[in-house]
Write a structure and sequence with these properties.
With about 300 residues, this protein is α/β, with parallel strands linked by helices. It is built from six helices and ten strands. The structure holds S-adenosylmethionine. S-adenosylmethionine (SAM) binds next to β10.
Amino acid sequence: MGAYARTNVVESKTASVSRLQRDAEAHVVCEDNLKFMRDQPNESMKLIVTSPPYNLGKEYEERRSLDRYINEQTACIAETVRLLHPNGSICWQVGNYVHKSEIFPLDVILYPIFTNHGLHLRNRIVWTFGHGLHCQNRFSGRYETILWFTKSKSDDYTFNLDPVRVPSKYPKKKHFKGPKKGEISSNPLGKNPSDVWDIPNVKSNHVEKTSHPCQFPVGLVERLVLALTNKGDRVLDPYVGVGSSVIAALKHGRHAYGCDLEQEYVDIAWERIHQLRAGTLRTRPMNKPIYDPNSKATNETQRYI
Ligand SMILES: C[S@@+](CC[C@H](N)C(=O)[O-])C[C@H]1O[C@@H](n2cnc3c(N)ncnc32)[C@H](O)[C@@H]1O
């Protein structure tokens, strides 16, 4: 455990058997994120990955003016930049704020806040998914984005491609001319997953579903953790919800930090941590292909796991 990682010893209320909220590599508390982050040292986090509220009036947020929302995001982002390691990354996952049927893409609105801090955008990842509201007056929204920024301007930020490669479409394709003629042309470890990620969102039948209305799929965060950190690095989610980022970090030997205002979500996060450690937590495998109802290769049981 890091020298400054505190141990949380609150007891879980949702667990059927009350358990201590303690783990050598996880630091997850019920606290406002500004307060939580102010206790952490400068440049201590290799990856800050999060999905903030979108100001839509979900059960965990009160709608406020867009100006006030942006001010709150500005304060939170400033703290994350202070905590960011020089070779580290910030991944801010957002969708649209909607007001009187008009949509306001939050990545477009928040982008200048990050660049004003001198951060550098490396990818604007499109996360696409199959399920959501069916709109009547516009096309139904089926994607959100992840803005991936680094602190470093040069190429010395952590980026590990091999652990997140996905199977090549034509793994047996060969060079057809030149000195390598006849040799396999694709990387045997697979191909770059690209900046468009088709990963099911966590809806009612998803194997990871909890009572949280908007949780991350663990596989989405795993890809970021594996690519943007090394074993033993620290990962922070300042809007941690039910701890999906924490699970992704712990699964791969990273130290996890997170906070949320709702005790109920923090309790669930701890229950998931305990299940992970006990080997009983079910998560959808990171690169599992999307269920195709027309394919004979998939069936109903495979659909949500
Ligand atoms: C979109 S959800 C994040 C869910 C999370 N990615 C997960 O997988 O469970 C946003 C979360 O931010 C929390 N939240 C809102 N304001 C906060 C604040 N000031 N400090 C800490 N958490 C906050 C909410 O309670 C909510 O759980």
